[in-house]
Design brief:
Helix content of chain A: 55-70%
Oligomer: heterodimer
CATH superfamily of the largest domain in chain A: Cobalamin-binding domain
Number of domains of chain B: 2
Strand content of chain B: 5-15%
CATH topology of the largest domain in chain A: Rossmann fold
CATH class of the largest domain in chain B: Alpha Beta
Shape of chain B: globular
Distance between the termini of chain B: 27 Å
CATH class of the largest domain in chain A: Alpha Beta
Helix content of chain B: 40-55%
Number of domains of chain A: 2
CATH architecture of the largest domain in chain B: Alpha-Beta Barrel
Order of helices and strands of chain A: HHHHEHEHEHEHEH
Radius of gyration of chain A: 17 Å
Number of helices of chain B: 18
Largest interface: A-B, 19 and 14 residues
CATH architecture of the largest domain in chain A: 3-Layer(aba) Sandwich
Chain lengths: ~210, ~500
């Protein structure tokens, strides 16, 4: 098995250590890091397709995403040094807003976005609004995805949007919101660009933002 | 072998040991003092030779308790049904739970909720769908649609069984009707399978000649016979539920004595049809709580004496549509029976107090069976399943177990996924067109009929089926059970059957 096939297999086996090892080996062999990254993206897309078809499960997707995340820094650094650019549908900054520690829903969205071909920067849970703004700026994000499951934290969505405007970033980034505390009326009232209650629907919404739907 | 579901925990007891003994002793007293009613000379002679007191003028046979208890001891605690695909064999008994197709007279039109005779093709399609459903372990081809358009009554069981053999590789269940069991047995022997037979004990404690002829035929072969006592509280049995149990157990004990004297070790199952009747109209109520409790007592009696029990608690319900009432009646009936120890449960497709049968309902019932089956499987308690190391490694929130290898391992194989029940989100339901469960089941039936392939009979097996059917037609035509005016429509129905 050649190294890139091994890299794809590691994603398919949810083997983070093997994925990272294959990524380093690919670079040692002088392989194109952009091509190596595309190999991982194709492998996780296959798993995403299986998830859609009902032959794979959410833990499969998360396991594959974890393997990909283990190898990504190695390849991303090589891509940066080479001046190349990895192929992606778009760049997404995502996280659960401050005061809220629910993670499974937003992680599901991130995993499906990765499987769909987005470059995802997941910030985690209980994230202050300022950190979202900083991440959008640093990564040149096309989309910011905010999750809030508690009614008391939904107002944080509005704060992020306000700070993005204050930083002059609002025009470059689409804001999508979701989570149990949110509905379409609330999303419209705070000036979000889109609301989606389901994880697969969030992927379609993100695709529509970047003209890939 | 289809292993069905292994019940990981002890069934629920609804009676104490003293109460069980009281029911058993009451049944023995009835058999010794009043006896069982039968006029079948060959059976009377068999019982008399074994020590029973036979009053031929009254057709009463009094059975000594010692003989009854001796015969009870030689009934096997389980039996095996051989299918034409040996991978589909089942062993009924022990802590295993299996499901059997239900029974109904007529086709249910889900647009109008009217009932009408089924066509032979519709009957065949029921067998195909049953063959495809993993929780239908035993087929009941003869009783699914007992009103087949154009087919004379006497031939319906045999035509049904033939369709069952043609369109399913799973084991088949049979009954009896004016010697039809002799043809069914020959068909089964020619194909290389066994049948079990459901045979009535007419309440209170009486045996018809046809029933006894069938018992002789099946027991001689050592094939399982199900005693089917049907006493109803206040009608064909005394009013109290305990008395219903005594009557049914007396009939069952008499049944056991007969089978064991014909051939020791013949498997006997108990298929109770007893219970309560409607308080106004006096028809049977298979889905009433009193009937369910009666089944629970029966199940415990059978467990106590090591007899396989094949119950039909709540199998058809009384609902007139596939609605909340239908689901409630079927689910509660099945669950209460299985939790109290039944082995083979009649379920899939039956409707409206046995008046109707539906392929759509057969698919809906698959989810009842699957849910209950998964519940019975429970969970292992060991180091791996307790996962203490896993918990310590992952720690507390916001960490999650979603991406863990142990989760991946168990997610697909340890979780029940419904066939048609919608467990998705409300958003997805709206976006999917707001389909109700009956619509989804109809779509599943269509998909199964388009995709499922049943291994065909061999040419030799096919010839056996056709030859036996032809011989049965001649037999019943010769003795007048197929009338001349029935013959032409019958042949026309076969010609137009358009079987799959």
């Amino acid at each position: 098995m050649d190294t890139l096939a091994g890299l794809a297999q590691a994603i398919n086996d949810y083997d983070a250590a093997a994925a990272e090892r294959c990524a380093r080996q690919a670079l040692e062999e002088g392989l194109d890091p952009v091509e190596a990254f595309a190999t991982m993206t194709a492998a996780i897309k296959d798993i995403g397709d299986g998830f859609e078809a009902g032959t794979r499960w959410l833990p499969d997707l998360i396991g594959a995403a974890a393997a990909m995340q283990a190898a990504s820094p190695v390849l991303e650094e090589a891509i940066r040094i080479s001046g190349g650019k990895k192929a992606a549908l778009g760049t997404v900054v995502a996280g659960t807003v401050q005061g809220d520690i629910h993670s499974i829903g937003i992680e599901m969205v991130c995993t499906l976005l990765i499987a769909a071909g987005f470059d995802v920067h997941y910030l985690g849970i209980d994230i202050p609004a300022e950190e979202f703004v900083e991440a959008v700026r640093d990564n040149g994000a096309d989309i910011v995805a905010l999750s809030a499951l508690l009614t008391v934290t939904a107002a944080e969505d509005k704060k992020v949007i306000q700070l993005l405007a204050d930083a002059g970033l609002r025009a470059q980034v689409k804001v999508m919101v979701g989570g149990g505390a949110i509905n379409a009326d609330f999303a419209a009232s705070i000036g979000a660009d889109g609301y989606e209650p389901s994880a697969p629907g969030a992927v379609e919404l993100a695709k529509s933002f970047v003209g890939a739907a | 072998m289809q292993h069905g579901y292994l019940r990981r925990f002890a069934p629920i007891d609804v009676l104490t040991e003293r109460e069980l003994s009281a029911i058993h002793q009451g049944a023995l007293e009835i058999l010794e003092t009043c006896g069982a009613n039968m006029r079948h000379a060959k059976t009377q002679a068999l019982l008399e030779a074994a020590g029973c007191v036979v009053d031929r003028s009254a057709c009463q046979v009094r059975i000594p308790p010692a003989l009854a208890e001796d015969c009870l001891r030689t009934v096997p605690s389980s039996y095996q049904l051989v299918a034409r695909d040996r991978g589909m064999d089942v062993r009924i008994g022990g802590d295993r739970v299996h499901f059997l197709q239900g029974m109904g007279m007529r086709y249910v039109d889900t647009e109008t909720w009217e009932l009408r005779p089924a066509t032979l093709r519709e009957h065949a399609e029921v067998q195909i769908v049953g063959d495809a459903l993993p929780n239908v372990h035993v087929m009941d081809a003869l009783f699914s649609f007992t009103d087949l358009a154009g087919v004379p009554g006497i031939m319906q069981q045999l035509e049904g069984l033939a369709n069952g053999f043609r369109y399913s590789t799973k084991p088949q269940h049979y009954g009896y009707l004016k010697d039809s069991d002799q043809f069914a047995i020959r068909m089964a022997q020619g194909i290389g399978v066994t049948l079990d037979a459901e045979i009535d004990v007419a309440p209170p404690v009486a045996f018809g000649d046809e029933a006894l002829e069938a018992i002789w035929r099946f027991a001689t072969l050592g094939w399982c016979v199900w005693a089917s006592p049907g006493g109803r509280a206040g009608a064909t049995a005394p009013g109290p539920l305990a008395a219903v149990q005594v009557q049914s157990w007396a009939g069952t004990m008499a049944f056991i004595v007969i089978t064991q004297l014909i051939k020791r070790g013949t498997p006997v199952g108990l298929h109770p049809c007893d219970g309560v009747v409607h308080t106004k109209w006096a028809h049977g109520l298979p889905a009433a709580p009193e009937t369910w409790y009666t089944r629970a007592m029966t199940n415990q009696l059978c467990r106590r004496f090591g007899i396989p029990v094949t119950t039909a608690s709540g199998f058809c319900g009384h609902a007139k549509m596939f609605d909340y009432q239908a689901g409630m009646e079927k689910s509660l009936g099945v669950l209460t029976s299985i939790m109290t120890g039944s082995h083979l449960h009649t379920l899939h497709g039956s409707f409206a107090g046995e008046l109707g049968y539906s392929n759509v309902l057969q698919v809906l019932d698959e989810d009842i069976a699957g849910n209950i089956g998964r519940y019975l499987m429970g969970t292992a308690i060991d180091d791996k399943s307790l996962a203490i190391d896993e918990a310590l490694e992952v720690g507390t929130a916001p960490a999650s177990f979603m991406g863990r290898a142990l989760t991946r391992e168990l997610w697909a194989k340890d979780r029940y996924e419904p066939l048609v029940a919608d467990w998705g989100s409300h958003v997805d339901w709206v976006r999917g067109g707001k389909k109700d469960v009956v619509t989804r089941a109809q779509e599943k039936v269509t998909a199964i009929l388009a995709d499922h392939t049943v291994a065909p009979l061999t040419l030799e097996q096919h010839a056996v089926v056709e030859d036996v059917l032809a011989e049965a037609r001649d037999y019943y035509r010769a003795n007048g059970l197929i009338a001349d005016e029935e013959w032409a429509p019958y042949m026309a129905a076969l010609e137009a059957a358009d079987l799959p």
